[in-house]
Amino acid sequence: MNSFLQNVLSTEDINYLKQLPEVLEAKTKLDSYTSYGKVYFSVVLTDSIRIALETHFGLNLSNVNTIPMRWIKGDTLPHIDTGISKFERTHLVYLNNCPGEFLVDNKEYPILENTGYVFNEGISHETLNTELVPRLMIGPMSEQAFAVGSNRVSYYPSLVDALNNTNLLGELVTSYPIPFIVGDVDSGTNGGYTRWMIASASGSSNPSIVYNNGDTLINDGVYNLYPSSAPCFLEGTHILCQENGEDTYLPIEKMRPGTLVKTSLDGYKKVDMIGKRPIHNTGTDERSQTRIYKCSPTNYPELNGDLFITGGHSILVDVLSDKEREETIKQIGKIYVTSDKYRLIAAIDERTEPWKSEGTYNIWHIALENDDYFSNYGIYANGLLVESCSKRYLKELSNMTIIE
Questions:
Q1: Rounded to two decimals, what is the model's pTM?
Q2: Residue 378, SS3?
Q3: What structural domains and CATH numbers belong to the chain?
Q4: Is residue 277 within 8 Å of residue 400, measured between CB atoms?
Q5: Where are the beta strands (DSSP E) in 245-400?
Q6: Could you report the per-residue pLDDT of 23-59, keeping only the tens digit for each?
Q7: Distance between CA atoms of 153 and 320, rounded to whole angstroms?
């Protein structure tokens, strides 16, 4: 089914949309691009716009609160829309006039204000001769009001933003069958981040692992990425240190460069740098590297109290099971050793429990003095032997605010 619709919205609704702060802010961002560009955003769905879209498109938007929109300038290459979930049709409404043509299934249509289009999933479409004139639209979206479009990688500053398509940093869009290079953008920026997790995707790349800039994603859908957090401790964790010649546990947030930390094999080492950042913890049972896990004395007898660490943080163990070895290689690429112990990340260790306290929390990590920029130590957190961070990882890869 391909449909060309006129007068989808009222004049009042179009003028309302054009004056929304979200629309004006997105337009300002688009204007900063010297050539081709797209800016994705969403707006709250009003009752009158809801009724108009339901009436003309035959949709049921009763459970939808926001709709995707975008500004575009420049021609779009021939492509087939993809989305983060399956859909049957693409729906869009142009909200201003633009030179050029919209081609759907080899048929040409003018790009005119208040014209809508509906076409089946799998149909190729493009725009031609638009002369870099900005065009505003509702959609393109699925029948569930999810954004659809070209295969792309979108970068967001947080998990919440990536799930809600808000505060987009930048994008990499292509219609060509070549792998996506993580960290690359053709509009906007990657925000200076270096490590990423997949928040949602229709593509087939592994959603459970951390991707570094320069890694590749399979170009078969849409990926929403957000910065991966470093392996970290929840604020309030106590680290075994030395003060006034005596061993004592100090809250990690009270530690500073120069604090003496007790290591498992190398005596006492001074803190070289400390990192801090917020993390959004989900309240689900999902096991991933970017959430917080609880280690309890029931499962770790050496603990002197509950310990909360991120899924990418390693507990140091003597032996890895075959299953743990296989999953470790799958998630982080190889088996690592610190202080003569194997690293077992919390997301893989079945003794940990996903912490179901949803919200945003501060997490911390420390790097100790070391002549080897890439090495770390075994240290004690609430009594449990875990890894410290290397100076290189904390400074260059952690996405954390550093205290030196």
A1: 0.58
A2: strand
A3: 3-149 (2.60.120.590), 152-227 (no CATH), 233-403 (2.170.16)
A4: yes
A5: 246-251, 260-262, 268-281, 292-295, 307-310, 314-317, 337-338, 341-345, 353-354, 359-368, 378-381, 384-387
A6: 999 999 889 877 777 888 889 999 999 999 999 999 9
A7: 35
